[in-house]
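A quick word before the example. In earlier lectures we treated sequence and structure as two separate objects. From today on, think of them as two lines of the same record. Here is glucomannan 4-beta-mannosyltransferase written that way.
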Amino acid sequence: MVEAEPKFFMPDSVRSVSYDIAGQIQLIWEMVKTPLIVPLLNLGVYICLAMALMLFIERLYMGVVIILVKLFWKKPEQRYRYEPIPDDVELGSSNFPVVLIQIPMFNEREVYKVSIGAACGLSWPSDRLVIQVLDDSTDPAVKQLVEQECLRWASKGINITYQIRENRTGYKAGALKEGLKRSYVKHCEYVAIFDADFRPEPDYLRRAIPFLDGNPDLALVQARWRFVNADECLLTRMQEMSLDYHFTVEQEVGSATHAFFGFNGTAGVWRIAAINEAGGWKDRTTVEDMDLAVRASLRGWKFLYLGDLQAKSELPSTLRAFRFQQHRWSCGPANLFRKMVMEIVRNKKVKFWKKVYVIYSFFFVRKIIAHMVTFFFYCVVLPLTILVPEVHVPIWGAVYIPSIITILNSVGTPRSVHLLFYWILFENVMSLHRTKATFIGLFEAGRANEWVVTAKLGDSVNNKKSDSVKNKTNVTKPIKKPRLKLAERFNLLELGFAAFLFFCGCYDFVNGKHNYFIYLFLQTISFSIVGFGYVGTIV
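And the structure line, produced from the sequence above:
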């Protein structure tokens, strides 16, 4: 005899209560949606479309200019007075200006030898070169290692000094400012700055200094960054794509049209007189490099970007390090814009159109609008329109404009065109972090002046390649990425947005007519990967 399965009954009273609650929620939603939600969401769509158009026009403008620059502009050697400094047997080294090299460091155990060795290997008369290692390290062991490395090079006849401070006041800006106060610096005309992971080519100064020497109105020569670990993982490939566009297009356009761009903080040579005239290094924001560049530009100084002058460097290969870096790079410019916009408006030394370029293009569109439109439009407003079908987003705003912007961005790294789709999804995820940092900078909130040095792991890719050809007894083990605790790995904000986008995607799949669910599910996966902290492990 087959036993009857037990049956469970919900009391009518409980069932009626649940139906009543659901009905009340539905009634409240219908009452609020038409008079409040729909108008607000429509307003959000209009604002986002306006921001998208601003970004599109900016990208299109830079695309046109860069084509003209490549096809018709004269090369820097033809636009500026440029004469290489010859080696003269009779004059010796006296025709070479004295150059100061500054290398700021903070607990750089893995890479300190890289920058010191590269600086000491520069092809420049040793009696016309002064190297400062500005060590703010808090680890006594690292301090000892760096000092020993400096002593080793000094024993070879290199004019190198090891300099420390009692505190880290002003962080990098404070260290650079303190370095310029030394008595021997008064004999130096120019200063080249290299972060601890940067390695300039031996002819770096011989190619950069003649531009400054022959053009007294030129304050800065900026080199392009190249990345030794770009192929280490998917995270570094994504960064390479963004930074290559910045150097290939943004820096080149600024240099060619207005002789202005943001100093990248490293791999650049400054005229010391320009630094002093601009007021020196200031630590009021986390972008002391951009701060100095804007102030120098407002005093009439010009900048030159040389795309074929390159310095190798390292990209952050862990998500934690990358997030800290992006917070600083997004929060700092917004905070500087807040503090300098009126100073730029009132300035009388620069032309009106240069003011427009600096305020609108350089700051407002690239440093503020670019982050906000990516996040609010494609991660908030567009998914919400699925839940409120009364709100319509035109296809040119949802598809055409972002597609064209993405294609324009691809010119920086042609070898990674096949990764464009992944890059879009990753940039959308990071726009959440950047938008939050931008608001912190604009409103000068709690973390506005947070400075966390980007962790470097050394050239692990090259280490692995070199290890494969060494004998087992001589193997140099590559630096391992630090393991994060489980709680530190989770990024709850990204996971929350992953859940939101997944819900919107499911709703669109069941009830929608736009077929946005394909994009939403893929974006959900991207937010989840970052939320669980695994993006830096994908090769």
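Notice the following. The chain has 17 helices and eight strands. We will return to this example when we discuss secondary structure assignment.
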